[in-house]
Structures are given as structure tokens and as C-alpha cells.
Amino acid sequence: MIKLENVTKIFPVGGEPYYTLDHVSFQIEKQEFIGIIGKSGSGKTTLLHIMSGIDTPSVGTVNINGTDISRLSPRELTKWRLHNIGIVFQAFHLIPTLTLLENVILPMEFASPFQKRQKKERAKELLASVGLADKWHLFPDHASGGEKQRTAIARALANDPPLILADEPTGNLDSENASHIFSLFQQLAANGKTIVMVTHDGDLAKQMPHTLELKDGHVISSLADNRDKGLRVQ
Ligand SMILES: Nc1ncnc2c1ncn2[C@@H]1O[C@H](COP(=O)(O)OP(=O)(O)OP(=O)(O)O)[C@@H](O)[C@H]1O
């Protein structure tokens, strides 16, 4: 489903090329739950941004569900992303002037053929599915960190993408909320979504079926048993 070949990202630092990612290649099958781990600065966020098309590789290709996203124009990429990827960020990135419900409706406004009423119903169902049935009218400033992240997950699911990319989704939460959010991702994986999650949290990483560790822009190891086909590192 996801195939990265020789993905390399070079930033010029002080006039010299700096390899944030250095020939990273791996393959993730559909419906897997993969953790990306590694020390600060190892390239995790850059990798996730390249997998989501937020950033482009300097060299290499990213193929997702048969589409080489490295070849899409910015306009094509935006359209493709709406239906194919849901993204969850550490800092939630909700729009403060919209209610939780309106935040979840927003991606459907750009992509979905549904009528206004259907979009509202779907957003309410999604919020209920993450435990926020009675909170949809709140504005983000009046929601807790855990509630904001639940909303961000509901928003990521709005257009029913097969792949969810999450960058430190528990990083701003206390351990109880982190554990609830992690359970939600586990449920999504059990229900057939492919999940790729960057995490610093060693306890969470141990609960993931597969992990890929980065060091200085290279894939160096995996914690769990990657021998089956879920994750193949070349
Ligand atoms: N736009 C940029 N220009 C120059 N260097 C950059 C740029 N973006 C990232 N880097 C560098 O690339 C390296 C990897 O950054 P990245 O954010 O991917 O790491 P990370 O593993 O996600 O770190 P953290 O866990 O702290 O979030 C870092 O050394 C960073 O300074």
C-alpha cells in the first residue's frame, strides 16, 4: 500500500547539504499499524510530511495505493490528499473560530458530495464514535487537550481515508488521555485503517505491532517482530 524508495531529503545548512532523510526505503501493507520512533532530530516528522505530501523528497519516490505522489502537482496533491489521507498533529491544529462539529465538517466541505444535513449527521456520528457525543457545540478553547485530539481524529476520518498519519498525537496529553487516544488508533487499525504514528513514547511503541526506528535520517531497526509482511525494510 505504501512504498518508499530511496527517499532522501536534503536541506542546505550553512551552505552545506544536510541529509535529514538518507535513502529511506520501506513498504507497509494495508491495514497495518506502524510506529515510527527515533530520537529528536532523527527525521520522523520529515518522513511523515513526505508520506502525506506536505513536503516533497529531494530524491526518491513515494507510492501510496498505486499513486506516485511525488509526481503530482500541488493542486492534484491537495485533491488526492482529501480522499486518501487523514492527518493528526501533536498540536491538534483545530480552527479556533469553528465549533468541534464545524471542524469535523470542514474536510467534507472540500471533498464530499453529501448534502449539508448529511455532512452534519456524519460529523456528529464521528464525534460520537470518539466519545464526544455531547460536546459538538464547544469551541476548541473550551475543550480539553484530550477532547481536542479526539476531534482531530474525527476530522481525519471525515472523508473516510484508508490511511491515517499521526505525528506525536499523544505528545501534548497526560498519560490517561494518551492511553485513550492510543486505544482509538488501535480500534481504527482493527477496523481496517492503515495507521502510521510517530511517537516518542516508549510504552506506546512497545504496544505497536511494528515499529521502524530512524537515526540520523536512516532506518536502523525495528523493535517488534517485523518478519511477517506488514513492514518490509529494504
Ligand atoms: N526546513 C529545514 N531546514 C533545515 N533543516 C531542517 C528543516 N526541517 C528539518 N530540518 C532538520 O532535519 C532534522 C530532522 O528534523 P525532524 O523534524 O524530521 O526530526 P524529528 O525526528 O521529527 O524530531 P523531533 O522528535 O524533535 O520532532 C533536524 O535536524 C532538523 O533540524
From TrEMBL:
Pfam families reported for this sequence: ABC_tran
Top-level taxon: Bacteria
InterPro entries found in the cross-reference section: AAA+_ATPase, ABC_transporter-like_ATP-bd, ABC_transpr_LolD-like, MacB-like_ATP-bd, P-loop_NTPase
Transmembrane regions: none
Family label: Belongs to the ABC transporter superfamily.
Source organism: Neobacillus mesonae
Protein name as annotated: ABC transporter domain-containing protein
GO cellular component, one term: plasma membrane
Keyword hit for Nucleotide-binding: yes
Domain ABC transporter residue range list: 2-233
Gene Ontology molecular-function annotations: ATP binding; ATP hydrolysis activity; transmembrane transporter activity
Entry keyword set: ATP-binding, Nucleotide-binding, Transport
